[in-house]
Amino acid sequence: MHITAHLDLDLIALDSADDVTCLVQLTAPMPDEIASRPGQALVIVLDRSGSMAGEPLEASKRAIATLARRLAPQDVLGVVTFDNQGDVVVPATRMRDLNPGELDARIMGIRSGGSTDLSAGYLLGLREAGRATATLGSLGATVLVVSDGHVNAGIADPVILAGLAQKAQQDDSVTTSTVGFGLGYDEVLLEAVTRGGNGTHRFAPDVDAATREIADLVGDLLGKSVVGAMMRIRPQLGAVGGVSLRQDLPNWVEADAVVVNLGDLYGGEERKTLFRLHVPAVAALGTATVALIEFEYTSLPDLRHHTITLPVSVNVVPGDEARNRVPNPIVEVESLIADIDDQKKAIATSLRSGDSDTARRSLGTAIMSVNAKRADLRATSAEPSLTQRLDDVAAELLGLADDVLHRGAEYSSKSFTDSYSSSSR
Asked: Which three-class secondary structure state does DSSP give residue 238?
């Protein structure tokens, strides 16, 4: 794992409390392509309610049957469906123990049904995933929920379902990812479940997009090189309460640390995590270590446990010198992007409530913020990669603006939710 840390400000005035923002960048190693890699467990939870009848359900079945052929003999596959009740179509089983013809027949034999009780299918999926980790030797599992509708039976509270996802992630190392199919699904619920389960949410407006998203998510699963990654932030000069995360990541507080659950990473994946740290007044000039960042993870395929510790240090200088400090542009850019993600979430909420005027104003403000920062970077001849980073963000915002203008609020709210979910992770 390649890990770097940057502070927005590394100079602190003598005898003065201050806040600094730390950017942690991680790049997962590329795994060796060997047949002996540990088995991965995947449980598909497929909506077969009446609204999925026809091509949506048929395309989903074909996608699942295709991805099953990509799994290795040591991998585990389970398939659960739901309409007004849940049903285990394929119990979580190692691929070497499944008959390919029988597996295809079970998948292609799924038929559409009645109402949408997502919780019934999801709870069955979590049970099958937990069984895979407990009895089949899988190092963690992924539950992938594919749904096109609003829940109209069973548990429909996003907070409760997100709590179930978080408990499964913490207790059994089960990650939950979701694919929202079409324009009728509840993006608030699916995104909440995804965030609780430390997974990925994708919006698939049509059949072709759904097939691609399912294939991409499974590709990430099979390319895992790191599992169970956690980051502990241990302040050295003050209370743990002085740490605040800029992103909505699963976290909790221990006696001397804030713990951030980073989950699993696929080979070559890059993650950026931002947190703000309150630094109490320091009474001595020189270098002061204000926090320790400790990473724990298990690498694949060797199953080695790693612990890496990075110090976060500042230079304590006289007040006059501190007044001339210049913020690190790398951290400034990522902080701006975190702000933009917060605005995306707010815009999606406005669109869902029918307040398109507020959504458009907020989107315009976000675009202007990015353009202003791009101009500043060009004026200071900053590293071209930083300008390119904001160019990409600006292009995405313009694409989202086009959705608002031409595709309507229902489509756009899902586009913003998808963008926020992916970027903030």
From this structure: coil
